[in-house]
Specification:
five-stranded antiparallel β-sheet; 18 helices; alpha+beta; 13 strands; two-stranded antiparallel sheet; globular
Length: about 550
Amino acid sequence: AARTVSAGIGGDANEEPAWIEESRQKLKMFREGTPVLAPKNTAVRLRTAGLNAILPSFKRLSKAEMKEACKKNLPGHISGLKFPHDAEQLKSFGPEWYTEAFRKFGTLAKDNRVTRVVEVKQLPHSGFDCAGGAGHKAFVTLEFEKPDPNLHTELFAKFPWDFFASPMEEAMRMQMSCYADLDAPELLTYLCCEELFPFRIPKLYFCDINRDTTNFILLLEKIPFGQRGAVKDGRTVERLERRPFELLPVCGKYQDYLLDDPAQIYYCIFREMAHLAAWDHQGRYDAFLQPAVPYTAEQGLQYAPKKPAKMKMKELKQQAVSALISKGEEFATKIAPQIFTAAGKDPAMLKRMKEDLAFMAPHFDDMKAFAGSTSDWLGASHMNLQADNAYFWRDEHGDLDCGIFDWCGFSRCPFVTTFLGCLAGAEADILDAHEEGLMKTFCDEYARYGGPKLDYKEMLLKYRLLWPGYLVDCCQWIERDIYRDWPQEKWPLIKDKYDEKFVGNWHVRCRASALITAFEFWPKRNFRKVMEDWCVEYKQYLTPYVP
């Protein structure tokens, strides 16, 4: 029998979909503070015969190897079927392929079939609504012989960058498919964990990858985002009334200025990050991530003892950080000052910031190790949970709930490290006002869903210790991405950060927006003092430097 719509947000148009009552009860328990422990059921996909969730090893292809390999269309290692991996093939493979593929995945009953591929609409990778940097995206419209409330006729497809389309796409294809194993883990997360999460994710229809070619395809339900109000000068100037459980409009990455209430969006996200990690401590994802190994602070230090490093290494780290910050300083004050706030490009602030970061640089790795000081601070984590990777709705009481997508890099790690990426899109005033509240929310929800009880003050300390390293990391993308896509000599053409030339260039918008916020937020905290106080209290985590 075909699977039901237990994942996703579909349902019979004449009846209230099951996910609404599920969300209603979930938010009721949130308001009442009711504990929510992980159920014991196993993901349906793990019980589906004929699919392979154990792939061949990742291959790191050279550019020459990729040039030849990606031309081939070989059977996928999950289903054994050949599969489309570009927009043209999504149309030309025809209804027969979709029928066979969906039946293979248990998505389509044997007495039903796809009768027509109505339309394939590739989404833009430039412009105000550009659709992400991990690959190409498209909407696929299908017709089924027998309409079924458990079947979506509007699907979302994700597939690789075209190696031959442009230098930018060639670079992105190598980055996403060859430098690290990024594509396969996302497919396997949808395949194996679809029904394990404490929130909704888009329903999976089909996915596959061939390790030899790196070609892949991911087919999900299309999320029915709500209509956005009118936008003027980078701001939403029209606020539309929405019914309970009607999805909010899509928000692009680093476009938080389009959100009606960005702070509440982040509180909702932090709740779900806490729920995800808490259920990991109950073994919810052990079949996928392998069982976790508990450890104390003492055991953690014994496992990775601090070995002395040469003073020369300390000096090299300081020099490297100073060089990167100098690039950021030049970008903010000479190349693109029009996109930075006065606080973020103040020369005196930037000078102090560079001095402080050089002072802190030798212990960036130590502070990162402290983030996972005990196993209580580790959990299953989404690596990139910004507002653009979730879909939101409100219940009758106005409380927010959400579903989550984009599972590239799903793994178990010190979850505080993922807060940096999550909050990278938040503007500095939001961070300033809600940083502490978000940490409290995570700790409260982590415990309510069955995770260990944590001190939010220690969580805030760990987060602030990681922030300097994050800021330095932002600066490395100036030459790697920003100047590659928008050279230095063209920056006078951009008026401000709402300019369509800025907003419409994915990498420029994302990399530069993170830097804008980082530079503006830095003077709002005394990060150097945070580190100096930590060094006194937690000496055991410090790398000793010797002549």
